[in-house]
Design brief:
Shape: globular
Largest sheet: 5 strands, mixed
Number of helices: 6
Strand content: 15-25%
Helix content: 40-55%
Number of strands: 5
Order of helices and strands: HEHEHHHEEEH
Length: 158
């Protein structure tokens, strides 16, 4: 059973819903969830918040947070995850912000740097990853790790 299948199955069993906010993954996480039969029982909403303006407008990410820590940061991933919960009411949320490359960012952020945030049971946790490969490989790895992180969060409380 794939991680996506496990996640959908576990969410269905618990009667939980999931929502996503994606920047660099551009909807890949939401797509990987809805690829699974039964996802309609658990998937609430998915946002692709590629621009800073939309992160602020839809998710409540503070401009000061972006200015102080940059958009590719644990702090922004955390605010995205919490904002997704506030917007949707889902029992668990996944948020991803990162820099897929192919070259390093102007601010020095290494290509492949990704922060994943999850909101679950009133707690936000974030993880930092530095993936290698081309732009699409980085995006795929980030989506895979985001699903695994959400699954891990739910299973650690069981």
């Amino acid at each position: 059973m794939t991680a996506e299948e496990q996640l959908v199955s576990l969410l269905r069993k618990k009667g939980y819903h999931i929502s996503t906010a994606e920047s660099c993954t551009g909807g890949m996480i939401a797509s990987s969830i809805v690829d699974i039969s039964g996802a309609s029982d658990v998937f609430e909403e998915g946002y692709v918040t590629y621009s800073n303006r939309v992160k602020e407008k839809l998710l409540g990410v503070l401009p000061d947070t972006i200015e102080q820590f940059t958009v590719v940061s644990a702090e922004v991933a955390a605010e995205m995850a919490a904002g997704t919960h506030r917007s949707t009411g889902a029992e668990i949320t996944i948020a991803v912000t990162g820099y897929a490359g192919p070259a390093d960012a102007e601010d020095g952020t290494k290509a492949g740097t990704v922060y994943i945030g999850t909101w679950y049971q009133n707690t936000v946790q974030t993880k930092k990853f530095v993936f290698s490969g081309d732009r699409n490989e980085v995006r795929r790895q980030a989506a895979t790790q985001a699903i695994a992180f959400a699954l891990e969060r739910i299973q650690e409380v069981e």
